[in-house]
Amino acid sequence: MSDQVELEQGNISIHTENIFPIIKKWLYSEHDIFLRELVSNAVDAIHKLQHVNLVEGLQLSEDYGVDITVDEKAKTLTVKDNGVGMTADEVRKYINQIAFSSAEEFVEKFKDLEDKNQIIGHFGLGFYSAFMVASQVEIRTLSYQEGAAAVHWKCNGSTDYQIGPCDKAERGTEIILHLSNEEEQYLKPSRVREVLKRFCNFLPLPIRLAGDQINDSDPLWCKTPSEVTDEEYQEFYRKLYPLAVEPLFWIHLNIDFPFNLKGIVYFPKLTTEFDLTKSHIKLFCNQVFVSDNCQEMIPEFLVPLQGCLDAPDLPLNVSRSYLQNEPQVRKIREVLAGKVAAKLGEIAKGDAEEYARIWDDIHTFIKYGVLQDEKFYKKTKDHLLFRTTDASQHTTLKDYLERGKEKYADQVYYASDESAQASYLRMFRNQDIEVLLLDAPIDSHLISFLEHQEENLKFLRIDSEATDNLLQGESGPDLVTGEDGKSSNERIADLFKGELDQDGLTIRVDALKDGSVPAVILLDEGMRRFQEMTRMLGKEAKEIGEHTLLVNAACPTIKNLLSLNESGETSAVSSVVHQVYDLARLAQGGFDQASWEAFIGRSQDLLQLASRPGSENTE
Ligand code: ADP
Ligand code: MG
After folding, report:
1. Which residues, at least 6 apart from 146, have a Cβ–Cβ distance to it below 8 Å?
2. How many domains does the chain have?
């Protein structure tokens, strides 16, 4: 059978008056995608031929590939393939009708959309995107079918087309774009190469520009994970991000069920330049680059992830908000979170030292994930690390509690500021009590979350309570003296209460095991958290609020106070009491302007006293 093509003029049947100006205008910012569309059509056509080969047992094997050429003189850019080709009927059906109806659908669907640029990366406008850059488009094609005649189709960007015979001898299709004057950039090989690199870098067939293959047709993510070496993963990363330092870890996804998802994602070593406001994953659809801004595909807390995801079944031609709610996209997010959790477990178990090393880089994101995603918490809870004052540097909560089970059961002692809480840290260290360092902004949220999740677990900041571990207990010196029946501790308390009369201050006298500290400030954990919360809500700034001054009856300075008082040195008593209080406040984090001035003045007076000649002999 021979298929003769008669010359025919026709009118492309579409309902939108003139689609081309609309296509041009709307796709203004992303003209490059025409090349992606034409090259992926060419690849599709070759895949179809390979399929036909297989099914019909034809022997059409040859060197499959797509060739892009530019002719600066003729001002044309040509995309040529050796795929299935088209018969005249197919051109009528697929180019005149179908291609147009999908372009038309696009126009219809998005005519009200505010930000049209948003969707461009996700939408294949198909064959007609050629008219974004060309004033005229020609197709020369010869179908693989026996007896087929070569077809020439031409359209100058109006709804009129021309179809006729031509002399094309090899099977396949050539798309010839006569570039419009404003688009002569695409005559420059370097420019075309750049676009091909971006969109076609990992296409599965050779893509050649003027004879040079420019793509890697067998990207690493298409290989079987067990056959890829660490070196290859790192090399692939360097190819994708030539300027970045080595990634912390990576995950090779190779999922067939319940949906298809392949890819390699890397957790980078973050630098201050790293932009955390956008996603860094390159999204592919059957190795065709789709977008590098696909934040709806990954959980929010994994925003640093880099690498490639290939999601062939995703409806990519839809808007952002649609993607966010699309069940398959949600599944992908879940899969990613699950894989990251599994990977963390694997590293933690396999190489604890390595895990501790990367923890400082990743902990904020992992903690954020824990707060956001309960499933993620369940999977990572045994691998959450905490810095500790113990020499081991990092610990899990479980190990911490296990080590301290005699001393503090389900309680976790923590410091939120090593320098402000230094004196408390010293007391804890002297009593051999391990303290966790929770000083990241997210840690206070994590603390509440963990207490909520784990029954009985209680976090106590080291300045929140004088625990039995720090107090001398029964054996402490607290003798009843004098005829009023008051104990010495009560007398000391009276002295302090008399001198320090202020709202929110409670005085408590007790003997600490550590006799070197005259007093410490204690902030009730619940009360302090409540204050921090109200502060976060924008209430008045740094005030200490309710607090307790724990006066240390075991400290010689305090012990001496009573005799000093009995000998009538009231102004010395007053100075010492205020100084003790101020020092405790200082150790706890400082105080306001007025208290600073009083403290400095009094310190100077005390220095003078101490440096008075003969002051050593006063006893
Ligand atoms: P889509 O690729 O989504 O089907 P396009 O507008 O890109 O939409 O292409 C429309 C149709 O034109 C294709 O489905 C295919 O049948 C046909 N076509 C386009 N380019 C080629 C080509 N290079 N070889 C064979 N057929 C092609
Ligand atoms: Mg297409």
Report:
1. 1
2. 4
